[in-house]
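Section 3.1: Structural characterization of target chains.
Under the original work plan, the team committed to producing a structural model for every single-chain target entering the pipeline before any wet-lab resources were allocated. The record below documents one such target. The sequence was received from the expression subgroup and is listed exactly as submitted; it comprises 466 residues.
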Amino acid sequence: MEEKIFLYYTNDLHSHFENLPQIIGHFNEEKEVRERNGQSYWLIDIGDHVDRSHPIAEAMKGKANVQLLNDAGYHFATLGNNEGITLDHDDLFHLYDQADFELLCANLNSLDGVQPDWLKPVSYATTENGVRIGFIGLTAPFNDFYNLLGWSVANPFSIMEKYLPELAEQADIIVFLSHLGITDDEEIARRYPQIDVIIGGHTHHLFRDGEYIDKTLLTAAGKHGKFVGEVILTWDQEQRKLIRKEAYASSTEKLPKDEKTEQKLIAYQNRANDLLGETVTTLEKPLEFGWFKETFIMKQLVETLKEWTGADCAMLNAGLLLDRFEKGDVTYGDIHRICPHPINPCLVTLQGDELLEVIRASFTKQFTELKLKGFGFRGEIIGRMVFAGASVTTSKLADGQEHVDYVEVNGSPLDMDKHYKVATADTFTFGRLLPEIARAENKQFFMPEFLRDLLADTLRKKVASK
């Protein structure tokens, strides 16, 4: 006798609620079929469901996301870095208090030793015919950020080794819910062949038909709910083993929409508008924005960043502001709409020659015109770098590129051997956008404040009085 087992999943939704009605509509259809046929199924989320770039997630600090998961009938979820490091300790501690599903994250620990009641390392589920499935969840160890918020995230490989013996003994099938990213998923598959399925996320990779490393099936459904994932496991009762593993990621574009979810989202948006409707300040005239120029509001924001961090100089990209501020009352909702990014202030120490390379790179067209996706940035393009405490003289070359001719920091020529404290967005500590910042040994992150919190202060203290 063979039993088919179904796992349906989402990963890295990032509060792209425009795709959620299709996802829920599809799940509802699949659930109806499975229940009619007496087949076992589970709904799973792999993290980064919450993204505070959306006003619903911002206003309700992720609680609406959890309720939407409840309403859809999810059974399991793991924690993404957007849940873990964009909420302050108390908000994360209570995020899943009302969850009807189990939150599995075996490597998250509160530094005060008090763990949330909802946090579990592993869980087990049994199919209609008695097949026992063990689930474990892990999240990416961004401890430079987690530690500042009162959490620590243990090494995922050490934690996997701790729990795998128990899972192997207690379960017929082992499923790993991974918010680690594709590289770690592949390495875990190589090291631990006893894992049957890895449902992945974090790096937004898409496996349309699954991928195998040895006998471990890896699957992931991209990002933003544009795809939805399905795993089908076939268990042979006589042989007491899996005889087939399949994984598919399907586009949600033409899936049927669930009308109840659409209505819930409208209600949540109205509530978010009310919660974010408090007036921050009142402007006597509009404030223009521009991604390729130094506007008044961007200059004032960078000045605030420099003062707030105690830096020698500061730099922010103009693409952080997505629209202009109109004359009249400015609400928190306006600030969130214009600066939606979950980006924190950061202070790095750079030697003068490294700072010069950063400044040079920031003036290239390859940098200013880059259509950046990720690293906390939720805008369109990076835009021109705006400075405070640093004065940069440039000239135009024949090919249209801008050449840095001369740099001063606080009125003195840039000293190539001197160390400078440079304030910027934590975006540039990731990847290869500005390598000198990414590999700087001395980094200080400021949390839980976002750049938009500094923008609100700037509007209140430096702009409204002008």
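Residues 20-37 form the longest helix (18 residues).
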